[in-house]
Predict the 3D structure of the following.
Amino acid sequence: MVTPHENPAFIGDDGVSRSQEMHNHSNSEPPPKDAKPAKEREQWGKGIEFLMSCIAMSVGLGNVWRFPFTALDNGGGAFLIPYLVVLFLIGKPIYYLEMIIGQFSSRGSVKVFDLCPAMRGIGFGQAFMVYLLATYYESVCAIIGYYLVESFRDPLPWAHCRPEWGANCIDSAPPKEEQENNTASAGRIDGEANRTITSSELFFVNEVLREKDNINDGIGLPNWELVIGLFISWLCVFLIIIKGVKSSGKASYFLAIFPYIIMAVLLIRALTLPGSVDGIIYFIKPDWSKILDPKVWYAAVTQCFYSLSVCFGNIIMYSSYNKFGHNVHRDATIVTGLDTCTSLLAGFTIFGILGHLAHEIGTDDIGSVVKGGAGLAFISYPDAIAKFQSLPQIFSVLFFLMLFVLGIGSNIAMTSCTVTAIRDNFPKVKQWQCALGIAIFSFCIGLAYVTPGGQFILTLVDYFGASMIALVLGIAELYVLGWVYGVDRLCRDAEFMMGRKVGPYWRWCWAVVTPLIMTAILVYFLSTYTPLTYNKVTYPNWAYAIGWTITCFGVLQLPIWVVVGAIRAPGSSWSEKLRNAFKPKHDWGPRDPLLREQYNKEIANEAIANENLGCWGFIKKNILG
């Protein structure tokens, strides 16, 4: 028989068996000798692989692609203060919370909510949401792949205007004779115009997206060049996750480290461009009138969700493959801190480039030099690279390779979350079979995003299928774990698992601060809702119908599973069934039966001790610690 002390799955990073450590400090009797260990769950080869995978997941397109244009749309530097506050009060506490619950139970994002049968809808809703995210993330990777291939051309195809683009085009790259003379130029303007448009922007809209003015008559047919990129992107994801965390863990070293090397090079280059300092000042200088704007705070919350991937199920899934005593407190601190630094690094880089663009065009309004949205990373960066006088192709290849790696790293986590959700419920399905099926089906769905109306669909899915669902399910997750399951029990679980107490900061955030702030954000969003637009173009009614259907499918998982849980729960009356549906199941706890037996005894002893606590004593113990 394998004891917890002998099983490496329950040895912490310091080499101490957590089960043995807790047993030495417990008054409970040792577990029965006839207890059998649970079926082994796949685990990370090394603890560092988990950390690198979390970095590759959290540090991705959300930092380089989404953060700069979110900041741009919300007043530049004014966005930083709400973002950092939200990170401290929402992002970091949820990140640590999900790491604890995933590692403690060794269950994926769906099965973990078996702790409260009535709340399984949270897991199913998150699985649906993260799958939608995965489908459009790979479409972005397809566009990145297209740029990567085009980067080998000399000159870069977006560097100069083409006759068919009209008279308002301005070259992103200065004429060759000016490069040879090493003189600055704002480029060439053909004819008279009220607004000049860079060749980089026109290349993205006319050649890459082939974008339509609206989708009233449909979204059009897929761009075959982007279809190839979409296929290659999904092929990469499939090959990396084909063996689960054993293969993705090995790839995480490259996926986590390589982007930082390229990002540092690009930042240094951006700082050497004229006007870049003005852009960075615009980025860090707060507009105090924006600080109190609820829209900015709502944008900070959604950006925090995207950047850290909290409330998507990815963190729970990754941590479920950890050894039981792994120090997730350390990893949560590292990842959240590094994620913030990366967002700032990306912001400095792109706002430095925006400052240079404003300098070239001759305007002081940095916020007006380029439109926001997904196009920012495909317009501003390429525009700056086109201005490089020495080997711009090398910088372009490296930049888009970095973006491709970031996108793949993030989508590996999202696709793995879907795979884990399926295999946890259907264990007979093999890893490669599940991964292949998801990749093929997702590729077919992704074809909609590489059509002339694809960016309309991407924005629609992002809004209705990600932002709204993530906020509602995230709030439900916090109330279930913090109030129904209980902050005190969460802290006991963490102490039992890692041998360290949980401080008041975490207790207050989990019990009060985080769920109430998110609830206020949701109330504000619902009270100020306006129909979604893309580039100031409204959607047809059928598109809004699809969007609300997506939202309802994700959110309605909550009441549906409350009813199902109540029906399945034991009890002689509906009120008793409903109460039992919100209680943890008898098999909830550590996966290993030896540890679970010991854990259940400690919980029983704790329940007896709590019986004599008054109201203030309960609050003092559960929240103040």
